[in-house]
Specification:
This protein has about 325 residues and is an alpha+beta fold. It has seven helices and 13 strands.
């Protein structure tokens, strides 16, 4: 079916300027082909891509990255009767380029936040989701439990987010264990308003990425509250807990609770610009709740690292 109406008029401009998801959306609209028909035509070429993935691509909720996905994009150029390389060229532009997520806050890569950032980025790339997930943090309350042996037993989060694009329906949570952690034995818990999706880990880096699927699909500007946790207990005795922030955001509250059999002698909050940078902003924390818990409150987080450190002796 030839392009008609506004779709035909908009198509040349958006194919030139992008971003990819808007160009794909316009090309699909101009073709008049429903997604299930497009899926069937891809399947006839030996390419299996679900209707859900195609929908996410045109919404900007996901971005094709894997070889099979890029093969599908090449086939889409033929199916939608586009010049060869039109869509692939737009994929070569970084997600934060002009026209793709304008107004999104600047981000820091995981490599700039944690020592195993390269492993994290590799796991995220395999899930074909944008780095920010289309979400801003409005508020985040995190509770960490330290066991009788000084090990990280687990952590639980209540997270409030706001979508900055339509169609967002998931969040990717990263868990970086302490030395000796076995990510294959770490258990993901979907506590409130979400369920566990894909879980990937890197054993050598001692890191795990979990996909948390929302109970609804958000529209731009909508907020959502969800809770999740990680049960660990596989690592060695730890002396700090840190949280890296790729984006500026809302309030962050961190509470660390210790077992009565292993109480630290001193606790301090701190910040870092990166994983190898010295600690700054040091401040002693006074335990509460029978001397078992300390906490910090950051009204508005900035890009970088926040944490609580403690001395056992």
């Amino acid at each position: 079916m030839p392009p008609t109406g506004n779709s035909a008029q908009e198509l040349p401009g958006v194919l030139q300027s992008g971003p990819f998801h808007l160009a794909l959306r316009a090309a699909l609209a101009a073709s008049g082909l429903p997604l299930h028909r497009v899926q069937h035509r891809l399947a006839a070429r030996g390419i299996r891509i679900g209707v859900t993935s195609l929908s996410y691509w045109q919404q900007g909720a996901r971005r094709p990255r894997r070889p099979e996905s890029l093969r599908a994009v090449r086939a889409l150029e033929q199916i939608l009767e586009l010049p060869q390389g039109t869509l692939l060229r737009l994929l070569a532009a970084p997600p934060g380029a002009a026209g793709d997520g304008a107004g999104r806050p600047p981000a820091r890569s995981y490599r700039a936040l944690i020592s195993v950032g390269a492993a994290v980025e590799g796991l995220l790339a395999g899930m074909e989701l944008p780095a920010d997930g289309g979400l801003h943090t409005v508020g985040h309350h995190e509770r960490v439990r330290i066991g009788a042996g000084g090990e990280l037993l687990g952590r639980e989060s209540q997270h409030v987010v706001r979508a900055h694009r339509d169609g967002v329906d998931r969040y990717l949570a990263v868990h970086h264990g302490d030395p000796g952690c076995d990510p294959a034995r770490v258990r993901v818990r979907a506590v409130e308003n979400c369920r566990t999706g894909r879980v990937r880990w890197h054993r050598e880096a001692e890191v795990l990425v979990a996909e948390l699927l929302f109970d609804t699909r958000l529209r731009a500007g909508e907020t959502y509250v969800f809770g999740y946790g990680f049960e660990d207990g596989t690592g060695a005795r730890c002396t700090e807990y840190v949280r890296g922030f790729s984006y500026t955001g809302g309030q962050y509250v961190l509470q660390v609770r210790f077992d009565e059999a292993a109480l630290p002698v001193r606790c301090r909050r701190f910040s870092r610009s990166g994983p190898g940078a010295p600690r700054s902003g040091l401040a002693d924390l006074t335990p509460s709740g029978r001397h078992r818990a300390v906490h910090l409150v950051e009204p508005g987080v900035r890009r970088g690292i926040l944490g609580i450190a403690w001395d056992w002796a």
